[in-house]
Amino acid sequence: MSLTGKWKIKSLATFDPEVGFKNLTVDEILAMPEGEDKEEFMKMVNVMVNITDAKLSMLAPIPADQLEEAKAAGVVVTDDGLGVMEEYDLKVENGAYYYKTSVTGEVMGEEIDPWQELKLDEEGGLSLNPMMTFERAQ
Predict the structure, then answer these.
(1) Alpha-carbon distance 92 to 18, whole Å?
(2) Residue of 41, 27, 1, 14 whose CA lies nearest to 126
(3) How much of the chain, in percent, has pLDDT values that exceed 70?
(4) What is the pTM of this model?
C-alpha cells in the first residue's frame, strides 16, 4: 500500500490523571470548552504530513499576514500556504516506508538505526510518534 500523499491529524494524545493517556479526535478537540488546553491542542489540529517517494515533510499553516515574512526567513511554503516545519529523508524497501530520524548513538553497545518504519494502525492511522495519529487528507 502506498503511503504517498497528504495526511491530516486524526487524533492527539493527552494525559488524564484519572484514566492515563487517551486520544482526542479533532471533533473532540473542537468541542472542548475554551481555555488553555484547547488553545494548545488547536495549534496542532492543522498540522499535516506530506509523503513523497523521497521525503516526509511536517507541514503547518502559516497565517496570511505572516506568509511573506516566513518566506523571507527561508521557510519553504507549499502552494496551499503550508510551511515545512521539518523534513526527513524517506526510502521504500520491499513496499515498506522508512524515514530517517535524527536519533543517533548507541543502546547497550549497539548503534541505533536512525531509519524508522512507518506503519499503519488497525484503523489505517499513521503514527510518527505516540502523541499524534494522522489519516489521509481528502
Answers:
(1) 41
(2) 1
(3) 99
(4) 0.82
